[in-house]
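Entry:
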Amino acid sequence: MPTFALRRFAALLVLVFAGVALAAHAQPAATPPGVTRTASVEGVTEYRLANGLTVLLMPDATKPTTTVNVTYLVGSRHENYGETGMAHLLEHLVFKGTPSIANVFQELGRRGMRFNGTTFFDRTNYFETFTANDESLDWALRMEAERMTGSTFSKADLDTEMTVVRNEFEMGENNPIQVLWKRLQALAFDWHNYGNVTIGARSDVENVDIGRLRAFYTLYYQPDNAVLIVAGKFDPSRALALVAKYFGAIPKPARTLPRLYTAEPVQDGERAVTVRRVGSQKLVGLLYRTLPGAHPDAVALDALAEILTVAPSGRMYRALVETKKAVGVEGETLSLHDNGVLMFFAQVAITDPVEPARDAMLASIDEIAKQPITSEEVERVRAKALKGYDELFNDPEKLGVSLSEAIATGDWRLMYLSRDRWRSLKPDDVQRVAATYLKPANRIVGAFVPDANPDRAPETPVVDIAAMIAGYKGDESVAAGEAFEATPQNLDARTERFTLPGGLKVALLPKKTRGATVRFSLRLHQGDEKSLFGTRPVGSLMGGMLSRGTTSRNRQQFEDELDKLRARLSLSATEQATTAAGETVRENLPALLRLAAEALRTPAFPADEFERLQRQMATSLEATRTEPNAIVQRALSRHDNPYPKGDVRYAATLDEELAQLAAVNVDAVRAFHQRFVGASHGEIAIVGDFDPREMRALVEQLFGGWKSPSPYTRVRDPYRATPPAEMRFETPDKPNAIILGMTEVQLRDLDPDYPALAVADRALGGSPDARLALRLREKQGTSYDVGSFLQPGQIEDKGQLGFYAIFPANALPSVRAAFSEELARALKDGFTAQEVDAARRALLEERMRARAQDNVVASALVQQSFLSRTFAESARIDAAIASVDPAAANAALRKYLDAKRVAWAFAGDFAKK
C-alpha cells in the first residue's frame, strides 16, 4: 500500500489518543434523584442530570472491561486569536492533577488502565479502559468529575507540557501529507476556525498565557457542555448512582456559553498551494468545502469519495494508478459541526511529474457529469459502509469513539441516522452532490479566473437537528453474547486442539459473542535456510498478490465477495511464512474460509496487478529515505548483522532493497508459490461464534490434503552480544528527531528471570508513570513519546531490550544525557517498592486485557500450537509476575542490562541552528 495510507486519514488528523465501548439488551438503570431518563436507541440509554450533564450508558457483559469516556463540546473551533492549539494543550494539562490526585497521568499508569484523550475541531474527549470492577469504576468516575471543574494545572505544568506539545507539532511537520492537508485546510476557510488545524500555530503553543488557558478551561469544562459515556461490563444502576454522586455534586454553571456566529462565505474561485520541503515522496491533493456532517447529504458525499477512489474499481484509481500516473489514490470526508470537507490525495512516484496525476484527478471529477454514478457503484460502496457499521456496533470500544464524533456533530443518534441513510442511498443522490459541490470555483487547486456568470456552490444549509431526531428509535439492539471471563484457565478449558493428518495444527475456541462475530488466524511455514537463500523479496511480493485475484475471481470480484460476506481478510507473507487473518459473523465463516483457501491455494498473479504492487512497494521504500524513524531502525537492524547478502536474516541497505525489488518479475513470484506454499507445516485458530464440529470438517476439507511442496526447517537466529555503537544521521528539514537504543539479552519468556525483567522494564520505561517518561516528558517537557521495551525470545534464547524517544532535534544533548543518567540511576539505586508494585499491577492488567480480545487470542493460539504450549504457560508467567519484588526486579535489570553495551542510533536535523 502507499505509505501515506489515507484510507484512515481522518484518524491521523485527531491529535493524541482515543477509545470507548457499547451496550446491549440491558434494562434501564434505576434513576437517582435529580437524574432523568430521556432517550434510548439500540441499547444506548441517555440520561440528563439537573446540572445539564448528558449521560449515555451502554452495558455489555460480553467483555470483561469497562470504559469511561467524557466528551466536551469544545475543540479548536472555539479558540480565539492567539489561542490556536489551546484546546489541545488543555487536553494535555488536565492529566496533571486534581485536589485528591496529585498526578492523574501517573495514577492512571499505576492502575494499569488504558487511557488517553483526543482533540479535534469540535470536541475533546478523555477515556480510560480497565478490567471491570467496582473499585476502578468508582475511581474513574470520581477522577473525571474532579477534573471536569477542579483540574489543578499550574504555570509550571504549562511550561513543561508546552514543549511536549511542541514536540508533537514537530512530529506532524515531519509528515508530508499532514503538512499538505494543513495548507489545503487553511485555504478552504478564510474566516472560520476550521482553517486552523487542531495542533495550532507554533507561536501560540509556545506563548499561550496561563490566565487565558485557565479562563478557557473554566468556560467550557462544565457539566452542561459534556457527555459522559460508561460502556462495557458494569451494573447500570450502580454506575448511575455513582454518576449522580460525583457529577451531580457539580453546580450548574451560571455562565452562558458564547454564541459562535462566524459563517464562511461561499468560495468564489479556484485556489492553489505548493509546499516545497525536503522529502522523499510527491503528493497531489484536492479539497472541496461541503456541508455540515448532520445534513442528510453527508452520506452521499462519503459514498462519492469511495466511488472515486476505492481500489481497484474507483474511477480516480483507474485513471491514475492503472495508467501509472500515481501509485495510489485516496478520498476522505471530514464530517464536522459546520462546513465539512471532501479531500482527494494521490501519491506520485518520486521520479514522475505531478502534473499528469493532477490533470487526471481533475478529469475524473469532470467526467462524472458525462458518466453518471451507477447503481453498481453505489451498491459496492454501500456494502462496505454497512459492513463497517456492523463491525462498529459489535465492537464496544470503537463505537464509543464514533459516538464522540457524532456528539460533536450535533447528537449521538446522528450515527444511527447515517447508517439508515446509507441503506436508502440512491445513485441520483450521489450524482446530485457531485454536481453541487465538485465545482471548479469550490476547489482548492488552480487560479482565479474572471467570470461574468460564476457557477458557485450553494450557501451552507441550516440543519434542524432537533426535528430530525425527534422520536427516532433505530433498529433492534445488537444480539448480546455470553459473559466469558478470559482467564488462562477458561481459555484452555474452552479450546479444542488437534492436528490434521496432513500436519496442520488446529485450535478451536467457540463462544457466543456480540453480533455473532468470529475471527480466525492462519500461518503456514515454508522453506529452510538453504532453499530460501536469495529469495527476498519474492515472498513478501507473493503475499501482496494473494488478494489481487485468483483463478476464479479477479481483484474486484474478490473484494465484492468480502463485502458481501461482511468480512475482513488480511493476506500476507514473508519468505519464511504465509499468513491469513479474517473476521466475519457466524453465518458467513464457512464462505470466508473458502475464500481464504481460494486465495492461498489458487492465486492468479495477474501481471498488471503485480506491476502496480511493485511500483507501490518501491515508492513506499523510497519515501523512507529521509524519514528519521525508518533510518534508525534500518541502521540498528544492520548493526553487527553477521549474515551474508542473500540470507533471509540479512539486513539490506535501502538501495539494496530497492534493487532486489526491481529485479523480481511475476514469474518468480508464481514459482515461489508453487515451490513453497502448503499446509503441511502450519497452524490455524478460530475464536468466536461458530459450530466446532462444522469447522473441524471444513478446515480438514480445505487444508488437510494440501501438502507443502518443499521441506520446512525453522531458520535459527541465535543470541549474539550487542557491540556498543553511536550512530548519527542528519535528516535536513526534519525538526522532529528520534533516538533508538537496542541491546540483545540472552533470555526466553519461560526463563525464571523473564517476569522480573519485564517488571523492571515496565518501571524503567514501559508505562506513562515510568522513570523515562517522568524525566523526559513530565520533568523536562522534551519528548511527546518516550519509553523502553522488552521482547524475549520464545525458542532461541535471544531477546531484545530497547529504548526510544522523539524530541526536537536541538535537544539531542539533553535527551542523550537523560537516557544515560536514568539507566545509570536504575542500575545503581534500583526501583522502589512503590514503583515495582505499580509496574507489576499495570503489567498484569495489560496481559488480562489482551486476553479479552478475540483477535489477540486467535494469534496466541496459533503461536501456542507452533510452540506446543497452552495458556497454562501464560498463567504461570502471570503468577511469577505477581510475586516479583524489588530485589528480584533490580537483580534482573543488573544482570541483563549493561549500559555500555547498548547500540544507539539517532536521526534528525541536528545541523540546523
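Confidence is low (pLDDT under 50) at residues 1-25, 446-452.
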